[in-house]
Structure prediction request, 442 residues.
Amino acid sequence: MDYFFGEKEYFKNIKKIKYEGPKSDNPLAFKFYDKDKIVAGKTMEEQLKFACAYWHSFCANGTDPFGGATITFPFADKDPMTEAEKKADAAFEFFTKIGTPYYCFHDADVAPSGNNMDEYAKNYIKITDMFLERQKETGIKLLWNTSNMFSEDTYMNGAASNPDFNVVQKCGFKVKTCLDANVKLGASNYVFWGGREGYMNLINTDMQREKDHIGQFFRMARDYGRSIGFKGNFLIEPKPMEPSKHQYDYDAETAIAFIKEQGLENDFKCNIEANHATLAGHTFDHDLQVCADKGMLGSVDANQGDNQNGWDTDEFPYDVYETTRAMLVILRNGGLGLGGLNFDAKRRRNSTDMQDLFISHILGMDTFALGLIMADKILKDGKLDAFVANRYSSFDSGNGKKFEQGKMDLVELAKLGQTAQTKLISGKQEYLESLVNQYLFG
Ligand SMILES: [Mn+2]
Prediction:
């Protein structure tokens, strides 16, 4: 099989990345991700369903608020449409070499937006037609696509929540175009990330009206998607802040309440991002668990934040404790269904070698592979789950069971409480944390 497409190989001198095991000295090899290895009844590839994020891997050039680009891409071209075509070929070369079975993109990542909506659609359709060909050649699949309704100045006051209906109309055109491409490419999911769906100050904002507009917009998108044969999940990606001071889809609990309030619960689930959960003051596994508990775990943006600052750094995951705890939730959930682990992660601004694009994905894939192996070990051993089950055992029979089943009123509960004997029962947190260390390093 050839590992490049179109007229040339963009990532020269880099072969297909292989598993070489934990003792390997080769920076361009997997140490823990062995795609065909069976863990918890499936191959690692099937359990983890990795996706490459087009925007970080092929668009992010190192620019930050303090300085310009540091990263140059081998597909750069003076003509934006030629560059988009070269970029697509380079992207599929990369997916094939690194071995991510899925990819994800925004409309704005893949094709120039042109001077008007017709040009936007024409460019986008041309590139996504090209994606379809490349998908057929490689077997690589689209995990999800989405519409960028936050970068252009048009959306500075919001997208579907914009107080000006003219902007909402443009959003309609973009999302319809993106849903058409989604169905053409056979995607598993369609994502909404509400970058500008929030407010900077309530002083100029009718919050409920804006939320209802988003709900109306989502119902229209759902109805259109279903009418053209989209059978996957629509996903909302919670985030508490950035770029708005307050984002309407603050965290998993908030997004799920919104989904239910707007009558979208049969079609929408959440796409949980690690760094967004931690920005909201939660742990990654907290937001995953909230979704799992409510049947709302759609997909995952697999990245990691920085504990020392309060913004969204989108780093490649490296923390095995965090991925172990995430994979515990995912395995107990029976997997991710139509979802996967999308690396919404970028190499650091000073990781400027083209090799670093590969190494950063190797790091992320190895870190989740370790998380999967450790979570499987923990679940197979069973001590942790048995401890938690036992902690609630007073509700398994007798009056506790009656209470749980709603067969008791407050008068009966109070009567029991009059003579109830309580004692201090240790939560054993440090014992369980030490147990996790034994699984990881024992
Ligand atoms: Mn992020």
